[in-house]
């Protein structure tokens, strides 16, 4: 096992590029933008979710489904607590037949999409001088790279730690793609892992060399060990649940299964730094076979899409009633969901979910005293959509390419306005490295970690009380009262643990 280190790219050139699923590979020197979009199921049959009527027994429904005599039918899972059955068949006649079965409320397509939000990522260079010697008036003496973690100051984590609250006893589930399970910054805090992706394992093996889930997990609970970075809740434990493949794609049912699994296995907090835009319209799913119209299926908004939302709401409400607080990223397309009618981002819009918008500084690499609370250029927003704000990074157009040195690292200024943490890996050499990422995916784990501090202080606290404390303790930036970019306010750990 090798320790994390900073890796130097071959030359300091940074580019912006748009990336949809399977469209290109990532170079270490490239700043990537990943777009969460609907994508057809490829090389597998279409999935469906059968939503049972409340209180119905699934055994009888499952038996009836197997007798429908549809093409290549597979009964995958049945969840009695949520009243959901997952099946697989390419036969477009299946839904109408299944809807005739007693106690079936609805049958919907198990939508597959790229849930990876369009973050920007950048791998750090090798520092020109020891980072440990750069203090920046930093109160976090133990961890040499913490001067680069302005997000800790944004959520007032040191103030919470000074009061003795570091997340001890709290469990945070991260639902994401693959994870770097041997990364020494998080390995001691991992207590459980689970995989819902067929043909892959929990361990990340993506071609990009950046494990999004590991960056998120490090932001939450990287250990305080005098090496590298530190999490907002360094004493919290991690439950790592793979619900997306290493390319960021997955079925809607995987998110539902992950929520159910995490809540049933003791998660106090569920973090979902992922999101997909569910269209508010009817569209055609070609089952991944565009040249074969025989298996095409029309996904109707008033039936399939709306009822799919019923399915995920069952999962989020189930977890909430079990005492699990759920946090999700708001998305990175700068949509105003107070007026946007074409689509909506899930799971952030699901019932009981705390939706987190992103904010961050501009010019922090030049002046570390600048404001940390500027709404991010990319964040989705809306009074009726955003619950709270948290640090996720920021940038301006055009990018600020002034060369600066911070904590011994010399780079373009705009990179320092991103969130610094673990997550990069060279599989060939098994070398870990640090780097920056910007997006609401980075804001959500800051919020989840602060909530973990509350569970550490109040082990039996309910999601309702968590919400009340967050409202009372958050800082009212932006327009007075609830506003589109900060919702009920900016997360503040130091004030939150005072309640």
From TrEMBL:
<dbReference type="GO" id="GO:0004252">
    <property type="term" value="F:serine-type endopeptidase activity"/>
</dbReference>
<comment type="similarity">
    <text>Belongs to the peptidase S8 family.</text>
</comment>
<feature type="domain" description="Peptidase S8/S53">
    <location>
        <begin position="167"/>
        <end position="489"/>
    </location>
</feature>
<dbReference type="InterPro" id="IPR023828">
    <property type="entry name" value="Peptidase_S8_Ser-AS"/>
</dbReference>
<keyword id="KW-0645">Protease</keyword>
<dbReference type="InterPro" id="IPR022398">
    <property type="entry name" value="Peptidase_S8_His-AS"/>
</dbReference>
<dbReference type="GO" id="GO:0006508">
    <property type="term" value="P:proteolysis"/>
</dbReference>
<protein>
    <submittedName>
        <fullName>Peptidase S8 and S53 subtilisin kexin sedolisin</fullName>
    </submittedName>
</protein>
<keyword id="KW-0732">Signal</keyword>
<dbReference type="Pfam" id="PF00082">
    <property type="entry name" value="Peptidase_S8"/>
</dbReference>
<dbReference type="InterPro" id="IPR036852">
    <property type="entry name" value="Peptidase_S8/S53_dom_sf"/>
</dbReference>
<keyword id="KW-0378">Hydrolase</keyword>
<dbReference type="InterPro" id="IPR000209">
    <property type="entry name" value="Peptidase_S8/S53_dom"/>
</dbReference>
<feature type="active site" description="Charge relay system">
    <location>
        <position position="441"/>
    </location>
</feature>
<dbReference type="InterPro" id="IPR050131">
    <property type="entry name" value="Peptidase_S8_subtilisin-like"/>
</dbReference>
<dbReference type="InterPro" id="IPR015500">
    <property type="entry name" value="Peptidase_S8_subtilisin-rel"/>
</dbReference>
<feature type="signal peptide">
    <location>
        <begin position="1"/>
        <end position="22"/>
    </location>
</feature>
<keyword id="KW-0720">Serine protease</keyword>
<feature type="active site" description="Charge relay system">
    <location>
        <position position="212"/>
    </location>
</feature>
<feature type="active site" description="Charge relay system">
    <location>
        <position position="176"/>
    </location>
</feature>
């Amino acid at each position: 096992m090798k320790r994390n280190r900073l890796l130097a790219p071959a030359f300091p050139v940074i580019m912006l590029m748009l990336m949809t699923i399977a469209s290109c590979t990532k170079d270490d020197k490239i700043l990537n933008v990943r777009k969460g979009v609907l994508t057809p199921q490829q090389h597998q049959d279409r999935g469906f979710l059968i939503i049972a009527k409340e209180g119905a027994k699934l055994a009888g429904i499952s038996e009836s489904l197997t007798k429908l005599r549809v093409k290549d039918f597979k009964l995958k899972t049945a969840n009695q607590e949520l009243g959901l059955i997952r099946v697989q068949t390419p036969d477009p006649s299946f839904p109408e037949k299944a809807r005739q079965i007693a106690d079936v409320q609805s049958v919907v397509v198990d939508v597959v999409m790229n849930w990876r939000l369009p973050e920007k990522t950048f791998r750090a260079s090798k520092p020109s001088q020891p980072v440990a010697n750069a203090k920046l008036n930093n109160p976090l003496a133990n961890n040499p790279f913490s001067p680069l973690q302005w997000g800790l100051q944004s959520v007032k984590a040191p103030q919470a730690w000074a009061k003795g609250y570091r997340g001890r006893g709290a469990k945070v589930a991260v639902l994401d793609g693959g994870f770097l399970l041997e990364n020494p910054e998080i390995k001691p805090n991992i207590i459980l892992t689970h995989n819902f992706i067929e043909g892959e394992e929990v361990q990340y093996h993506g071609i990009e060399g950046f494990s999004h889930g590991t960056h998120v997990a490090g932001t939450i609970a990287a250990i305080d060990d005098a090496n590298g970075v530190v999490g907002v809740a360094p004493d919290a434990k991690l439950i790592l649940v793979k619900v997306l493949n290493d390319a960021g794609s997955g079925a809607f049912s995987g998110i539902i299964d992950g929520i159910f699994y995490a809540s049933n296995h003791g998660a106090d907090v569920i973090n979902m730094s992922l999101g997909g835009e569910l269209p508010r319209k009817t569209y055609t799913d070609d089952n991944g076979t565009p040249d074969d119209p025989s298996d095409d299926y029309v996904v109707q908004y008033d039936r399939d899409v709306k009822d799919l939302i019923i399915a995920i709401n069952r999962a989020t409400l189930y977890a909430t009633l079990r005492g699990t607080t759920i946090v999700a990223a708001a998305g990175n397309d700068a949509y105003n969901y107070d007026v946007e009618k074409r689509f909506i981002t899930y799971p952030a819009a699901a019932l009981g979910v705390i939706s987190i918008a992103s904010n961050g500084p501009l010019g922090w690499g030049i002046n570390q005293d600048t404001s940390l609370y500027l709404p991010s250029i990319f964040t989705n927003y809306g009074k009726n959509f955003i619950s709270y704000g948290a640090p996720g990074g920021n940038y301006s157009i055009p990018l600020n390419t002034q060369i600066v040195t911070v904590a011994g690292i010399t780079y373009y200024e705009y990179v320092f306005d991103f969130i610094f943490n673990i997550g990069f890996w060279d599989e060939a050499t098994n070398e870990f490295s640090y780097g920056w990422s910007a997006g609401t995916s980075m804001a959500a784990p800051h919020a989840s970690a602060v909530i973990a501090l509350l569970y550490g202080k109040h082990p039996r606290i309910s999601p309702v009380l968590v919400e009340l404390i967050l409202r009372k303790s958050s800082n009212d930036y932006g327009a007075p009262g609830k506003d589109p970019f900060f919702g009920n306010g900016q997360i503040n750990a130091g004030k939150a643990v005072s309640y």
